[in-house]
Amino acid sequence: MKLPEINTVLGKFLFSCLLFLFPFFIYFPSLSYENIYLDDDALTANSSAGIREIFTKDVFLGNGTKSGFYRPLMSLSFAADRKIADFLFSKIFSGKKGAYKYSLKEDYSVPPGMLFVSHFHNILLHGIFCIILCEMFLCFGMNKKTAYSGAALFAALPCNAVAVAWLGGRNDMLLGIFIVPAAIFLKKFLDG
């Protein structure tokens, strides 16, 4: 079986899918990682905060100290992870509707499956960023083979392990997912 050329629509779609899935093969072991002491415990525990707390306090919700680390998008993503884990692991796998209810004031524990969902989310964000990075390479004039190869190399670089495997590294990926498209659109705007 011969792979389609990268210059065709089917080829671009196929190589983009492979580029998106590549981080899942690399970071698959991180799906079983537990919380670490640094920040993960506070980030996952504070994911039960309400919208008001997310947008008015720092990412650690001011528990005892003020960190000055205001990242509402990251806090929202962890809150979404908690909701997804609650839905998947309490309603689908256990068969009990609403079996796991957590609130910030009552329980700082991590619901079943949240760490898996959070690590999966980090890998998903890394795959999305690799696609965006490839598009940036193409926008700035690289040929398709070089752009896809460069994005695949970026996906596999060991220095990205911190951003992907550590839950607190999600902040870097979210930043990149917004900054790189801004650079692409700025380039397209300036080119006319």
- Number of helical runs? 8
Described by the principal axes of the CA atoms, the overall outline is globular
As residue ranges, the low-confidence spans are 98-107
Gyration radius, in Å: 19 Å
Structural classification: mainly alpha
Roughly what fraction of the amino acids lie in strands? under 5%
Q: What is the arithmetic mean of pLDDT?
A: 82
Give me the count of strands: 0
* End-to-end Cα distance: 41 Å
Q: H/E series, N to C? A: HHHHHHHH
Helix content: 55-70%
> Biggest β-sheet, characterized?
none
Please characterize this protein's 3D structure.
The protein starts with 8 loop residues before the first helix and ends with a helix. It is mostly helical and 192 residues long. It has helices spanning 9-26, 40-45, 51-56, 72-92, 114-139, 144-156, 161-165, 170-191.
Write the layout of secondary structure elements.
Blueprint: H1 9-26, H2 40-45, H3 51-56, H4 72-92, H5 114-139, H6 144-156, H7 161-165, H8 170-191
Helix pairs in contact: 1-5, 1-6, 4-5, 5-6, 5-8
Defining traits:
globular; 192 residues
In short:
By secondary structure, the chain is an all-alpha fold.
